[in-house]
Amino acid sequence: MIEEKGIFSGGEFCGHASCPGCGEKIILRHILDVLGRKTIIVCPAGCAAVTDGIFPHSISPVPFMHTPFDAVASCAAGVRAGLEMSGRSEVTVMVWAGDGATFDIGMGALSAIAERNENILYICYDNEAYMNTGIQRSSATPFGSWTTTTPRGRLKSEPKKDINFILASHKIPYIATASPAFIDDLREKVNKAKEITGLRFLHVLSPCPPGWKSDPKDSITLARLAVECNVFPLFEIENGERIRLSYRSQSLPVTEYLDMQGRFRYLSEEETETIQSRTDEYYKTLNSLHESEQPLRMTMRKE
Amino acid sequence: MKKVVSGNEATSLAVKLSRAQVISAYPITPQTTISEKLSEICGSGELDARFVKVESEHSAMATLIGASSTGVRTFTATSAQGLALMHELLFWASGARLPIVMVDVNRAMAAPWTIWCDQTDSVAQRDTGWMQFYCWSNQEILDSVICSFKIAEKSSIPCMICYDGFFISHTNEPIDIPEQKQIDKFLPPRKAEYFLDIDNPQTFSGGTLPNYFMEIRYKLHDAFEKAQGVINDVYDGYNKLTGRSYEPIEPYYIDDADRVLITSGSAASTVFHTVNKMRKSGEKVGMLRIRQLRPFPEKELLYYIKPNIKYGALDRNLSPGTGGVFSQEIRSVLNRNGNGNRIHEFIAGLGGRDITTNNIEEIFKRIGNVEPDGINWVGLLK
Question: Are A106 and A130 in contact (CB under 8 A)?
Fold first, then answer.
């Protein structure tokens, strides 16, 4: 376990504007506690941008740069270049972006900094839709989910974009998934990522009670169930080649996760079965790749 | 040192002399040779700068926004579609008060595709909160780029230097290049007042409610109102160093003129040549060359407007349905100041069409012979 540094003592992290039960602030608090004060946050439009505080207020204990929605990856590359040119290479440049900025509007720029292997720690808090604008589907929204743009009768019919394997194909040094229900694992991954040079990508599931139509008190339970039902497995990929499962789940039925969320309430039995079988297949593939020497197959989501 | 260089080479030399620290650019004709040269001199170590090789102009400007926020000196160059792709970020750069310097090698906007010159790309960015300077010679490009870093850093407003694609960017001219040590003295390293600093953590450009936003915009506007003073001071200093200076509006043969044509960019060279030619046959014609679109030199323009002179404005750009953008600006200044002079408005040279001395002679004839009658398209096929 990584010792708490108390970066948030003295009330520095108080006063944010996140909704009750929001995963994002819990995750951010632990990330910053591991990274420490030699960190600069680069943050695009999204929940985190708003809930950090409205001018002149900000809860951030470290320098915090807001960016346009689509520009966070490139802005971070610029911050990195600027730090290097002014003799401050030791500072960690951390992107803190939602799934909209990461999977969708900022995808081109993210792919570019991955291809260039920019020395950036890119962390995505994934709440699986455009929650800040009021629950519209993103390409991170899972199959069968209700959102305002995938309403009842037109639920999301496409699977979630497999961002980790897209980035793995860029051969970046480190990719990991993490969860606020597995804090030690999250902190260890942040600590590991901190020591690596190049683009590091952390993908953290961030429960969102208003968007998921769930009870705020259940956020950590849901984050735990997402892992235990294999909907959001915890793993690492190094250099786009070696994959390692970080946690052996109980492989609970997906219904335990789905049934606690209003966004999945319109699923038919058949659709629920589809989710179960796809989840099983994905986890099986991950298992088969676990610490194997064979190169990653990129067709993991084959229907 | 004297050297014969193209307009784009003049830019690269100026960026090197100015010791830009982070450069980011994406290839687009006719700008590309700037990024090639800068990439080369960053690679060879001739310039101690990081060249970030991005995947789009949008990312080029975003990269500079990030880099400039750390307090370093930054530069990019683009043209046309590339500039338009940056549009969102141009507002961000000026709103965040980042002294980014950019060259726009003027190229017409598609559709239809064209790589040839007009100024519609940069004039369309008029309201983004960038200063805009229009050059007519390679010497002026070199001097303007160097001075713009100082102007931008003193006023915390980003600067765009514009010059005509191919007509200037790819034409060789002899220029005088200052010594590095001269420029080091004139333009010391940037000292940012606010920057991303782990010892003094601050949050930049966060959400702002109606209770503060307007004041922040007012401050930017106020900085523009004061910018002409900054520009003049910087050029005074540069003049002492090099003996060269530039006015926001540069007059040519206007003291006894009865007809004056106002224009910018490479078209001014043709007007200059035509004025010389017509003066030889006794015609009292003159020129005002406008160097700035933002801040627009209102006072300087009014200084040159006299009751008994007939004026025309020649634009190599178009706001469809309204006409040339410099013409609009001039008209607006004249109207606001109750000056009864109406001006002839001319559109010419769009998409790289040549503006010839014959065209200019016809324009001067028209200014002399008829009353202003809306927008005249020069050299349009029948």
Answer: no
